[in-house]
Amino acid sequence: MTEKLSSNPDTQRQMQAVEENLLRIRETIRKAAEASGRKEEDIRLLAATKTVPAEVINHAVSLGVTYIGENKVQELCAKYDALDTDHCHVHFIGHLQTNKVRQVVDKVEMIQSVDSLKLAKEISKACLARQKTMDVLIEVNIGREENKSGVLPEGLIQLLEEVSTLPAISVRGLMAIPPASGKITETREYFSDMYKSFLDIRARKLDNVTMEFLSLGMSADYAEAIAQGANLVRIGSALFGERVYPSKET
Ligand SMILES: *Cc1c(COP(=O)(O)O)cnc(C)c1O
Predict the structure, then answer these.
(1) What CA dihedral angle connects 63, 112, 38 and 178, to 10 degrees?
(2) Is 234 near ligand 1, meaning CB less than 6 Å away?
C-alpha cells in the first residue's frame, strides 16, 4: 500500500492518529460484540466524516473502514470527487431537505435520515427518474426532543407503511440519536427501546421493508449501543479526533 504524505502537518498528524484510534475502536467493538453473543464482523463501523478532509477519510478507508457518512449536503458535494468511493460505501446521515435530495441520490448508497413521507416521496421520485432504488433507514426521534430530526416513536409504523408503498425506496432499518443526557443508564433505555422496535417491525414482515441495519451509537456510547443490539455504529471524534470547525474570518 502506498501512502501519500500530506503537505499539511495537521493533516499528517491526524492521519497518524487515525491508525491508533482505529485499533482501539475495533478492540472495543470486538469486546462489545462478543459480550452480546455476536462477532466483530457483525458490527459495521461507519466513519462520521464531517469536517474531516478527504485525504484523511481516504486514509481511514485504506486502513479498512468501509462505510463513511456525511451529514451536510454542501460538504458531501465539496469532498465527493476526492473520496475513494470505489473502496467504501457512502451514506448520508444528516438532516436532509427535500430541495437537496437530487444532489444526494447520485452520490450515496444509503440515506439514514428519512423521517417524513414528504422526504421519502422526493427521494423516490428522484430515484425513479434515474432508474435506481435508494436504500434508506428511518430516523426515529427516540427522545421525543423538540428541534430534533426523526419521526416520533408513535408515528413510526404508519410512516413505514406509507414509505413502503413508494416505488424507488427500500427500507433497510432504523437509525436514532438519543438525547445527549450524559447518563449512560438513560441512553441504554433509548437504545433498548430502538432494538425492541427493530425486532417488532421485523416480525411484522411489511412489504419492501427489511430490518437489517440498526444504526445507533456514536463516539461516547457505541459500546453500549452494540450491547443493546446495534449493528452499525457511527463514529466521528473517537476516530478522527475532536472536530475543528473552520472559524469565521474576523
Ligand atoms: C457527527 C455525527 C456522528 C458522530 O459523532 P461523534 O460523537 O463525533 O462520534 C454520528 N452520527 C451523526 C448523524 C453525526 O452527525
Answers:
(1) 110
(2) yes
